[in-house]
Amino acid sequence: MRRARGFTLIEVLVALTVFALIAALAYAAVGPAGRGFRQLSRARDRYAEEQSIGAQLRADTAYASASYDTQLVPLRLQGDERGNEAFDQLTLLVREPGRPSLTLVHYAVDEAKGELVRSSRMAWARAGTPSQRWDMGKVSSLSIEAMDASGAWRQQWPPGRTFRWPRALRIRARFVDGMHEW
Questions:
Q1: Predicted TM-score (pTM) of this structure
Q2: What is the pLDDT, as a whole number, of residue 71?
Q3: What are phi and psi of 90, to 5 degrees?
Q4: Which of 10, 54, 146, 152 could cysteine-pair with 157, CB 3.0–4.6 Å?
Q5: In degrees to the nearest 10, what's the CA dihedral of 109, 114, 120, 121?
Q6: C-alpha–C-alpha distance, residues 48 and 121, integer Å
Q7: φ and ψ at residue 84, rounded to 5 degrees
Q8: Phi, psi of 131 (to 5 degrees)
Q9: Beta bridge partners of residue 172, listed in sequence order
Q10: Cβ contact 73:158 at 8 Å
């Protein structure tokens, strides 16, 4: 007579116990890697957000334009230093690609939300026309300066009665992971 071959209950329990130990050790080893991956993913998303803000600021300043309408100032800075934080505002008259006329673009920090906000509307839009609002990302501080003809940085622009283009703009934003400058 042949005996039936197979596994005994003890052998199956030992195999399951060994498998459970290996799975627990593997999870303990992979768990921190998963947390590290999530942290890396959040850092990558923040970096992409900061790069997007910088690209939009560069595009808007590159397309800044003057108008025959002297009431529309092509560039206006309003400085507001409060302690260690700056909540400056930048308004540009921009000739955006794909738009039929000039656009007023305004950058400011929404202090209640802690976000950089870009709002835009057509320069000659009717009174009461809502602006398009874009919450660009978490920013705790925004500092903007313009370089005058003598090379001095100013937080207010235009500095006098007649408008002159600044030699350069310097924009600093404080993000969660530090300060970035464009």
A1: 0.74
A2: 80
A3: -125, 125
A4: 146
A5: -100
A6: 26
A7: -85, -10
A8: -85, 155
A9: 143, 181
A10: yes
Alpha-carbon distance values, 111 to 10, 68, 114, 116, 151 (Å): 66, 34, 5, 9, 31
| Structure tokens belonging to residue 23 | 């799975």
DSSP string, 105-163: EEEEEETTTTEEEEEEEETTPPTTPPPEEEEEEE-SEEEEEEE-TTS-EESSBS-SSS-
Residues 132-159 as b/e (b if ≥16 CB within 10 A, e otherwise) read: eeeebbbbbbbbbbbebeeeeebeebbe
- pLDDT of 1-20, one tens digit each? 667 778 889 999 999 999 99
SS3 content of the chain, % helix, strand, coil (to 5): 30, 35, 35
Task: Provide the pLDDT for residue 15.
Answer: 94
Token reading at 78: 């309003």
